[in-house]
Every structure is written in structure tokens, then in C-alpha cells.
UniProtKB/TrEMBL annotation:
One of its GO terms (molecular function) is phenylacetyl-CoA 1,2-epoxidase activity. The lineage of its organism: Bacteria, Bacillati, Actinomycetota, Actinomycetes, Micrococcales. This is Phenylacetate-CoA oxygenase. Gene3D superfamilies: 1.20.1260.10. One of its GO terms (biological process) is phenylacetate catabolic process.
Amino acid sequence: MYGNDFAQPGAADSKAAAPPHPLNAAETPDYTDALAEYFDGLIEQDQRVEPRDAMPEAYRTTLVRQMAQHAHSEIIGMQPEANWITRAPSLRRKAILMAKVQDEAGHGLYLYSAAETLGVDRSELLDKLHSGRQKYSSIFNYPTLTWADAGAIGWLVDGAAIMNQVPLCRCSYGPYARAMIRVCKEESFHQRQGFEILWVLARGTEEQRAMAQDAANRWWWPALQMFGPPDTGEHASSGHTAQSMAWGIKRFSNDDLRQKFVDMTVPQAQKLGITLPDPDLAWNEERGHWDFGAIDWDEFWRVLKGDGPCNEQRIRTRVEAHEEGAWVREAADAYAAKQAARRQPEAVA
Ligand code: FAQ
């Protein structure tokens, strides 16, 4: 469905053609001209920046912000679907949904690990999530009211997530790009399982068809908001896109990815027999794209500020899970300390 874009290593996984590395970042307190030249050379030649490379502080903080937000989205995103694990309509559906939700936890772990290569600690990032100082995707502040929502999340939310993440496999920061390859493969599978849930419902009873349509009605617009504010116009944010594109972090603007998503999804909706809730949706021959209606950006900013239907519940559940899981972290620390002690050479009496 997405081709094989994410399997491509991008222009450069090897630094064969890279300029010589003048100094090691970890040993250099100042970001000197030589280091800046080295970093600029990597970006110009579309090479990967690796954790020990010197980098501008603004590049590092942009990555930490985006990767943390991304990691938080993966783990908060477990909640709406986990809501349906006990009520999935069959054992097979339950097993598939459990595996999917576990995959999202795994994505969070890769992303926190990748963020840690930039010198932050995941406990610090989680603390920022729990105290509202770092964001997670707006989409996860909406409720899952029926079983069809599990289908709509897979089809539309994972669909939008991969459209945004496939280009991140070519992100200039190596650990993020590499994490994205596996994440995209798994998200692609999730998208298909969501499509299949809706496919079955859309061919079921009258009530099941209505349930599938209702889920699509509720998830369509929030899915379009996932790509972030528009590039231009009164609702555009001051935004990170131009700088992130110059650094090779983002490869496409928010609006370009949103358009690609609409173009990909409309024919899928037609196959499903689901009507997307937008009377302005129309094929534009001249542009070679689907036109679509105005997105409610006031709602988007409201949800981001904390006033979505489930914001409070999501953070409360997350904080409770963190507190209840303290014993796991303590046990892991105790085990690591014991293993480290075993590796110490025996003290000479
Ligand atoms: N929600 O200038 P831009 C998933 C913020 S993973 C919340 O465009 P940027 C898997 C943005 O942070 C879904 N905040 O910013 C899954 C910035 O805030 P700041 C998550 C948003 O970073 C599926 C401000 O607005 N994916 O779904 C959103 O260049 C199913 C201005 O925006 C990622 O995180 C939003 N939708 O571009 C799990 C992918 N949009 O810091 C479970 C990686 C924007 O100025 C079940 N991230 N903001 O206060 C990205 O690609 C980018 O960060 C964007 C935003 C495109 C999201």
C-alpha cells in the first residue's frame, strides 16, 4: 500500500563520501567553526548525523522535542485501542488487537531509546509528558465508542502515521531514521488490519455498516489534523517546518503530507463503501489531487491546549500506569546492579 519507500536506506547510510570528522563532539565543549562546517557538510550531502557527531544545539533540541512527542504519542496511543481488548468480538480479534497495542509500546521504547542518544533521560521526558510540558498527538484525545473505532484507528490513524513516518526513515538523524524503518513496517501491517476490520463491518448487517460509517465520520477530521497546522494562512503556526526541512529532519511540509494522505485514502474509502464526511471532497483534474474541505483548526488548538474530550483521562491513566509500574523499574535496577556487581573483579583480600 505504501510501496517500499521505508526500506530504502536513503542517500547515505555510510559516510564514505563524508568530509573528514575534525573533532569528536563528546570531547569538544564548544561548537567551533570547524564543527559547524562538518555538520553543514553532512546535511548538504544528505548523510546521517550520528550521536557522537557535533551538532548545533537547536538541531538537538528540535529532535528531542519531535522524538519525545512522537514517543509519547505511541504510548498514549495505546489507550484508546486497549479500551477494546476485553470487548473485541472474537478471540482472534482480541489476540490481534493485543499484539497491535504491544507493538505501539515497542515503538515508544525505540523512540525513547533513540531520544536518549541525544543526551536526555527517558524519566525526564516522561516527567514532562505527565506534567503537560511536552505534547503527544492530538488524535489520541478522542474516545473509542464502538468496536468499529478499532478499525478506524488502524485504517486512518496508522495510515496517517505512516504517511508522516515513511519520510522520517530518511531523517538526517541516524538513530531516529533507523527506528522509523521498523516502526513503519509494523504500522503498515496495523493499517491493513484496521482496513480489514472495517471491510468486514461494511459487509455485515445494517447496524454494523452504520457503525463503520459512524467511526469514519468521527475519525476522519482528527486524522487530517495529525499532520499539524497548515503551511500558510491565518491558521499556520510560526512553525518548525522550514528549519526542520533545511536540516533534513522533515522531508515534506505538513500540507504536502496531508494531501498525499487524502489522495491515498479516498480510493480506499470507495472500496470500503464508506463515505468520507466531507461534502467538498472532489477530484481536481487540473491539480491531479483530491480537493477537500476546511479543517477546524480552532478545534485542533483547543485539543492541544488540553480541552479535548479525553485529555484529562489520557494523562491520568498514563500517570497511574507509571506509578503502578514503579516496582518493575526498581526490580530492573536491582537486577542490573546485581549483574554489574558480578562482573566486578573480586577484591583482593
Ligand atoms: N498533535 O511546526 P509544526 C501514531 C505541534 S504516532 C499535537 O508543524 P513540527 C502511531 C508541534 O509539536 C503520531 N501537537 O511542528 C500510533 C508544534 O508544537 P511546539 C505522532 C502537534 O514538529 C497509531 C506546533 O504544533 N507522530 O499515531 C500536532 O515541525 C495508532 C507547530 O507544528 C509523530 O509524532 C499534532 N497532531 O511538525 C500509535 C511523528 N501537529 O513544539 C497508536 C513525528 C503539530 O511548537 C495507535 N512528528 N503539533 O509547541 C512529526 O512529524 C512532526 O512533529 C509533526 C509536527 C508533523 C507532528
